[in-house]
């Protein structure tokens, strides 16, 4: 097979279908950018879960004297010193609990409240005796929250057991929902890209049906006839894949490092690094190259039977 002939046929095909080729490049670029973005979003959520779930605490809030009337669990009155001693001892016996178990008294709770909500209008109406004592428990495995909740939720002197992980689950649920939406949109763009590729290849094959007919008559193989069309589609897909890589790199830089600078504004979030982005780029380029080539191969079956 003469490479010069194949390359000349590719150039002819691209010039004849320039508009449709441009549409293929754009649709492939957008769909692969969404694909790469979905992969990075999933990795970001996984990274944040690992980072934050390791830091969350289970809080066991104890009854105070103000809870007796409003909270049925505290109807017997405020927690006693003996009850606090028993709760701490039982916590330290549990294998799922990391030691030491931290105790927060009302003064410490009031101080933390003022640090977090001191600017709110309600802060001036809160006094230390209204705050609740609590045990702050860190688990070896955050998934075992129910073990602690079951053991202490109904005990005398315990007002409630709260898992901070439930707050994070709402955030991660939102991010996972955005990821699913991105994947759905990627699938839609991928279908559009495949339809454009198939139509572009068929139009190109139809416009050159005389040349391909002559090639069949002189004994050219099916692979030899298909190669220019497949290479055209692969070339357009390659350009789209490279453009998708540029979009991913630009989005990572703009959102996290420059522009919005989320890394500086949200320094509590463990953002994925450049290594996570760069490792996805070869996959994006490979899909951009192979997907149009395979689609073109199936689209050309009909024309080789004529």
C-alpha termini separation: 22 Å
Order of helices and strands: HHEHEHEHEHHHHHH
Using the CA coordinates, give the radius of gyration. Answer: 31 Å
What best-fitting shape do the alpha-carbon axes yield? elongated
State the low-pLDDT regions, or none. none
Question: What composes the largest sheet?
Answer: 4 strands, antiparallel
Overall mean pLDDT score?
76
Structural class, from helix and strand content? mainly alpha
Strand portion: 5-15%
- Identify the strand order in the major beta sheet: 2-3-1-4
Number of strands: 4
Q: What is the helical fraction, as a range of percent?
A: 55-70%
Number of helices: 11
Subunit structure: Forms a membrane-associated complex with FtsE.
Domain ABC3 transporter permease C-terminal: 183-302
Transmembrane segments: 21-41, 180-201, 233-256, 276-300
Pfam families: FtsX, FtsX_ECD
Summarize the structure.
This protein has helices at 3-16, 18-53, 81-93, 106-117, 145-152, 165-207, 209-217, 222-257, 262-265, 274-299, 301-304; strands spanning 58-62, 102-104, 134-137, 158-163.
Layout of SSEs?
Elements (H helix, E strand, L loop, with lengths): L2 H14 L1 H36 L4 E5 L18 H13 L8 E3 L1 H12 L16 E4 L7 H8 L5 E6 L1 H43 L1 H9 L4 H36 L4 H4 L8 H26 L1 H4 L2
Antiparallel strand pairs: 1-3, 1-4, 2-3
Helix pairs in contact: 1-8, 2-6, 2-8, 2-10, 6-8, 6-10, 8-10
Overall description:
- The protein has 306 residues and is mainly alpha-helical.
- Helix content is 67%, strand content 6%.
- The chain has a four-stranded antiparallel beta sheet.
- The longest helix is centred in the middle third of the chain and has 43 residues, at 165-207.
- The protein is elongated and about 100 Å long.
- Part of the ABC transporter FtsEX involved in cellular division.
């Amino acid at each position: 097979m003469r490479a010069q002939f194949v390359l000349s046929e590719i150039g002819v095909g691209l010039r004849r279908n320039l508009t449709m080729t441009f549409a293929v490049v754009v649709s492939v670029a957008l769909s692969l950018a969404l694909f790469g973005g979905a992969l990075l979003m999933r990795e970001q959520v996984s990274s944040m879960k690992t980072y934050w779930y390791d830091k969350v605490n289970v809080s066991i809030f104890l009854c105070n004297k103000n809870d007796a009337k409003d909270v049925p669990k505290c109807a017997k009155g405020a927690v006693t010193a003996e009850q606090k001693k028993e709760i701490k001892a039982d916590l330290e016996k549990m294998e799922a609990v990391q030691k030491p178990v931290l105790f927060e008294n009302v003064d410490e709770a009031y101080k933390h409240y003022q640090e977090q909500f001191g600017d709110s209008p309600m802060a001036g109406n809160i006094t230390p005796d209204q705050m609740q004592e609590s045990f702050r428990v860190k688990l070896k495995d955050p998934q075992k929250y129910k073990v602690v909740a079951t053991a202490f939720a109904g005990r005398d002197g315990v007002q409630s057991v709260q898992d901070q992980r439930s707050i994070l689950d709402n955030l991660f649920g939102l991010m996972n929902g955005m990821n699913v939406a991105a994947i759905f949109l990627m699938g839609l763009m991928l279908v559009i890209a495949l339809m454009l590729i198939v139509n572009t290849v068929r139009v190109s094959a139809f416009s050159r049906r005389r040349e391909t007919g002559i090639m069949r008559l002189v004994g050219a193989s099916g692979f030899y006839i298909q190669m220019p069309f497949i290479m055209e589609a692969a070339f357009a897909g390659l350009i789209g894949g490279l453009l998708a890589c540029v979009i991913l790199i630009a989005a990572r830089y703009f959102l996290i490092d420059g522009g919005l600078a989320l890394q500086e504004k949200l320094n509590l979030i463990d953002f994925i690094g450049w290594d996570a982005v760069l490792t996805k780029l070869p996959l994006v380029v490979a899909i951009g190259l192979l997907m149009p080539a395979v689609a073109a191969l199936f689209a050309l079956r009909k024309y080789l039977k004529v």
